[in-house]
Amino acid sequence: MANETPAGAPARREMRTEDGVVVVDYDPTWPGRFRQLAEPMRAALGETARRIDHIGSTSVPGLAAKPVIDIQIAVAAFEPLDAFRRPLESLGYVFRAANPERTKRYFREPPGERRVHIHVRLLGHWNEQFALLFRDYLRTSPETAARYAALKRALAARYPRPEDREDYTEAKDPFIWETMYAANRWAQETGWVPGPSDA
Questions:
Q1: What does pTM read for this prediction?
Q2: Quick one: 34 exposed, middle or buried, by C-beta within 10 A (0-12, 13-18, 19+)?
Q3: Which of 4, 71, 130, 137 lies 20 to 30 Å (CA to CA) from residue 101?
Q4: Distance CA 130, CA 26 (A)
C-alpha cells in the first residue's frame, strides 16, 4: 500500500493518521486506488461481503475531498464478528472496537499507511442505503457537488488541526441533511435502487 508516484508525475497529497483536515482537488486515481484495496477484500471475505462499495467524496468524479478512500462493506449480520474481522485483519486492517456508532463496525488502515476508512454495515439497512444514495445523487448533480466542495474547503480552513476532525464533520451535517432531502425526492422520482456492488 505504499504511496508511489511515477517519475515526472506531480506528487499526490495522501492523508496519514497524524494529519489534520486537508481537502484537495479530485484525483482521478482514486477509483483505481479503491479497486486495488477492494480486490483483496473480496477475495478474503467471499460471500460474507454481500457488497463492497466505494463511498464518500472520493467516489464522486470531480469532487474535492479529503484524500481518504472510504469503503463500505455490507454484511448480513454483525455476529459472528470474526466472519469479517479476521479476514480484514489478515489484510492488515485495524478493528476500531471503540467506534461509538452502533450501526456499523469500523476498521482503519495498517499503521503508517495511507488513510482508509472501512465501514461495515448491515445490507439493506438505512445507513448502508444512505451512503449509496448520497453518493449516487452527488454523481448526478454537479451543482450540488460543487456547493459541497466549496463548503468542505471553507470548513477545512476553519478546522485544520487533527483534533478538529469531529468539528469539521459535524459542521457538514446541515448540508448533508439538506442534500439527502433532495436526494430522497430524486430517488422517488427516478425509482433509484443501488446498482451492482463495486467489487
A1: 0.89
A2: buried
A3: 137
A4: 22
* C-alpha to C-alpha distances, 54 to 33, 132, 155, nearest whole angstrom: 10, 9, 23
Residue 29's contacts (CB-CB under 8 Å, 6 or more residues apart) are 12
Which amino acid would we find at residue 146?
A: A
- For residue 193, the tally of other CB atoms under 10 A from its CB is 10
CA distance 40 to 138: 28
- Would you write out the chain's pLDDT as a tens digit for each of its 199 residues? 333 333 343 344 454 445 679 999 999 999 999 999 999 999 999 999 999 999 999 999 999 999 999 999 999 999 999 999 999 999 999 999 999 999 999 999 999 999 999 999 999 999 999 999 999 999 999 999 999 999 999 999 999 898 988 999 999 999 999 999 999 999 999 999 999 999 9
C-alpha cell at 94: 485495524
Which of 23, 53, 42, 196 shows the shortest CA–CA distance to 135? 53
Burial classification of residue 63, based on how many CB atoms lie within 10 Å of its CB (0-12 exposed, 13-18 middle, 19 or more buried): buried
Domains and CATH numbers, the chain: 30-185 (3.30.460.10)
